[in-house]
Amino acid sequence: MVTGASSGIGAAVARALSREGAHVALAARRSEALREVQAGLDQQCGAAKSLVMPTDITDRRQVKSLIARTEQDLGPVDILVNCAGVMFYTLMKNLQEDDWERTVDVNCKGALNCIGAVLPGMISRGRGHIVTISSDAGRKVFPGLSAYSASKFFVEALSQGLRLETVGTGVKVTTIQPGNVATDLLSLSKDVEALEMYGQPGGARVLDPEDVAASVMHALRQPEYVAVNEVLVEPRDEPV
Ligand SMILES: NC(=O)c1ccc[n+]([C@@H]2O[C@H](COP(=O)([O-])OP(=O)(O)OC[C@H]3O[C@@H](n4cnc5c(N)ncnc54)[C@H](OP(=O)(O)O)[C@@H]3O)[C@@H](O)[C@H]2O)c1
């Protein structure tokens, strides 16, 4: 199950999973974009099944239906990759309160909704892997990204707690902490002042979504007794 599978990192993770022969459920709001990603999967790997599920992860009922439909069509969810997320460059003094709220709704509550929908099944089956695409902003706060950084500190804390509470259950919990990746994420920001101050490209070669997907696959490929808890993956010339 991959959320945020309609573009960027989520689409790359879905392709990587499908290449490995996994059945993949693709979730995000834009059904047309999901179908395009699915068409790419089917061309790559005939054996792996896939399912497109238009879902707003901020709506807990939609997330529960997503899991129910996935289990019905593809079987139990062994792997959840929480990729769906938003990021708004904005200065706190500019009071873009709708963007703050959206950040919390999608990045924090959305991740909770998805984890809540798969966790009981994983525990009862004695296996499962929850991977959340956090950020290097989950380790260090960036100016212009206060609310976003806070949301990524939230998913880091949530994942740490979940990891500690699921010891002995067979469930693994991983966060991936990418630096700048070439995706559409930056295009959401409308606070011109924040973008000018902090959102300009630094000139370094940034990551491709496939580089982040490779980190996800590294965490997933480990033997049962090995847990990759956190992966910080950044452009070489943009260390935190
Ligand atoms: N790009 C970077 O530099 C970077 C760095 C570190 C971490 N990340 C993290 O990587 C993740 C993926 O971002 P990306 O860079 O791949 O950007 P992206 O291409 O804009 O992808 C964001 C995804 O989230 C989905 N999404 C947003 N709101 C949603 C909602 N309410 N319900 C369901 N899906 C929703 C979008 O799909 P729909 O619009 O179709 O719903 C889209 O598939 C995010 O969590 C982001 O914070 C990105």
TrEMBL record:
At the top of the EC hierarchy, this enzyme's class is oxidoreductase
Keyword Coiled coil in annotation: no
Q: Which SUPFAM superfamilies match?
A: NAD(P)-binding Rossmann-fold domains (SSF51735)
Q: Which domain of life is it from?
A: Bacteria
Q: What keywords are assigned to this protein? A: Oxidoreductase
Enzyme Commission (EC) number: 1.1.1.298, 1.1.1.381
**InterPro entries xref list:** DHB_DH, KR_dom, NAD(P)-bd_dom_sf, Sc_DH/Rdtase_CS, SDR_fam
Extract the CDD domains matched here.
Answer: SDR_c
- Biological process (GO), any one: fatty acid elongation
Catalyses which reaction(s): L-allo-threonine + NADP(+) = aminoacetone + CO2 + NADPH; 3-hydroxypropanoate + NADP(+) = 3-oxopropanoate + NADPH + H(+)
Q: Pfam families in the record, alphabetically?
A: adh_short
The keyword Iron-sulfur is annotated on this UniProt entry: no
Any one GO MF term held by the record is: 3-hydroxypropionate dehydrogenase (NADP+) activity
**Family matches, as Gene3D superfamilies:** NAD(P)-binding Rossmann-like Domain (3.40.50.720)
The chain positions of domain Ketoreductase read 1-184
Protein family (similarity comment): Belongs to the short-chain dehydrogenases/reductases (SDR) family.
Q: What does this protein do?
A: NADP-dependent dehydrogenase with broad substrate specificity acting on 3-hydroxy acids. Catalyzes the NADP-dependent oxidation of L-allo-threonine to L-2-amino-3-keto-butyrate, which is spontaneously decarboxylated into aminoacetone. Also acts on D-threonine, L-serine, D-serine, D-3-hydroxyisobutyrate, L-3-hydroxyisobutyrate, D-glycerate and L-glycerate. Able to catalyze the reduction of the malonic semialdehyde to 3-hydroxypropionic acid.
- Name-wise, this protein is NADP-dependent 3-hydroxy acid dehydrogenase YdfG
